[in-house]
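STRUCTURE:
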């Protein structure tokens, strides 16, 4: 039996890392950019070499399917994403896609009579770095309604998500209304029916410190946290910095500073919620004027949506009070409000048994990061994730790294899990 080669996965990861590579060692491969397109073209050739039939769906999800099966039609799916944040490392998302291709190749060389087809997917735009919304491709596939305003979100060049999406189809259209309509149709056309996916298994780096702290290489994910994301606009009064007395100011930036510290202290006092004021823009941003307008991007995340929502509510009260005290106007726009999801307990039990069979040390843990698996869990009958320990818990940073031995064990477990899922209903063999 041909086994998947972690060595080839490592080699391909290094090759892929050259697309979008930066002088400081990081990678910037934002969704729907030239670099992203180049990376997809390369990944497509690897999918084809693995014997998969490849097509790109209407929102840009790159899908490779096995051609022959003997049994049922609901697919077993695995994959992740190949777009990146700004100044990223080389493992986030890419590892899960390349590991799935490697497993597909090994499976296509085996003599098993597969009962279910395998589909490997590189989901479009998992990262929010360009248009502020995340897991766009997998949400579209799962038919999850996305905010109406989403398609109008602009990148820092003023290009809308609708335009970027139409560009995937080489549709150029100066009429904004028609472009929005076309983009909506593309989103609609990507939806897969409920239960058309028997199981989805995503392999991903942990991106946090839990596994590394315990010197355990493999994590089995129990649940995936979800964010509320806010755009806050603070309107003050731009004025002369030399002449305006301190008590007569309406300074948008000092109000922003107070708000940033409030987010920090509200979340520091909570058990489960992480709050980050991650983006800021300041107008006019010149040395001799009081700032007149500030925009903040806030990410509030938790696996516990009740606690997260209550912090959001308290934050709203602070915002109201702050606006009065500081003589500014503060507008709040909710960009995303998603619900955390739990992974399938039966699949989790099965993966645990398979890990034990192969002497793979592991533990269960929840994911603080968002993943395509969270979307696909809405339509797949079973959904699970395998985490690989992240060195020093670092991610969304050029220093992101993991041990090759842990990666090899993760791929072995992915192979065993997908094999079991494609051959039989393993879920009947292990009690919940
Ligand atoms: C995905 O990268 C996230 O922001 O959790
Ligand atoms: Mn990421
Ligand atoms: Mn990721």
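SEQUENCE:
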């Amino acid at each position: 039996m041909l086994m998947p080669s972690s060595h080839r996965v490592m080699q391909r990861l290094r090759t892929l890392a050259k697309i979008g590579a930066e002088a400081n060692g990081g990678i910037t491969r934002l969704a729907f950019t030239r670099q992203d397109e180049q990376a997809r073209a390369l990944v497509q050739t690897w999918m084809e070499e693995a014997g998969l039939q490849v097509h790109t769906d209407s929102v840009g999800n790159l899908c490779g399917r096995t051609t022959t099966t003997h049994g049922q039609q609901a697919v077993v799916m695995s994959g992740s994403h190949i777009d990146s944040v700004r100044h990223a490392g080389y493992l986030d998302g890419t590892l899960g896609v390349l590991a799935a291709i490697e497993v597909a190749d090994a499976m296509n060389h085996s003599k098993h009579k597969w009962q279910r087809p395998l589909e490997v997917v590189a989901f479009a735009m998992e990262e929010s770095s360009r248009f502020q919304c995340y897991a766009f491709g997998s949400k579209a596939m799962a038919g999850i309604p996305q905010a109406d305003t989403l398609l109008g979100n602009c990148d820092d060049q003023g290009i809308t998500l609708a335009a970027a999406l139409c560009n995937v189809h080489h549709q150029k259209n100066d009429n904004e209304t028609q472009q929005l309509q076309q983009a909506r149709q593309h989103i609609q056309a990507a939806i897969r029916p409920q239960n058309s996916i028997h199981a989805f298994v995503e392999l991903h780096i942990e991106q946090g410190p839990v596994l590394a702290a315990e010197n355990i290489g493999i994590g089995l994910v129990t649940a995936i946290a979800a964010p509320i994301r806010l755009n806050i606009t603070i309107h003050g009064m731009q004025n002369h910095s030399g002449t305006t007395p301190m008590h007569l100011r309406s300074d948008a930036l000092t109000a922003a500073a107070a708000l940033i510290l409030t987010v920090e202290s509200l979340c520091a006092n909570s058990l489960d919620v992480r709050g980050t004021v991650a983006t800021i823009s300041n107008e006019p941003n010149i040395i001799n004027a009081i700032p007149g307008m500030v925009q903040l991007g806030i990410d509030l995340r938790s696996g516990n949506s009740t606690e997260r929502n209550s912090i959001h509510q308290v934050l709203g009260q602070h915002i109201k009070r702050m606006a009065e005290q500081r003589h500014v106007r503060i507008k709040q726009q909710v960009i995303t409000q998603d619900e955390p999801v739990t992974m399938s307990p039966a699949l989790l039990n099965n993966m645990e048994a398979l890990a034990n069979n192969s002497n793979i040390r592991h533990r269960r843990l929840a994911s603080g990061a968002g993943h395509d698996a969270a979307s696909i869990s809405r339509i797949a009958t079973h959904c699970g994730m395998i985490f690989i320990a992240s060195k020093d818990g670092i991610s969304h940073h050029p220093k992101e790294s993991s041990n090759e031995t842990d990666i090899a064990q993760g791929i072995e477990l992915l192979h065993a899990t997908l094999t079991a899922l494609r051959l039989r209903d393993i879920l009947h063999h292990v009690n919940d």
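REMARK: Residues 305-326 form the longest helix (22 residues).
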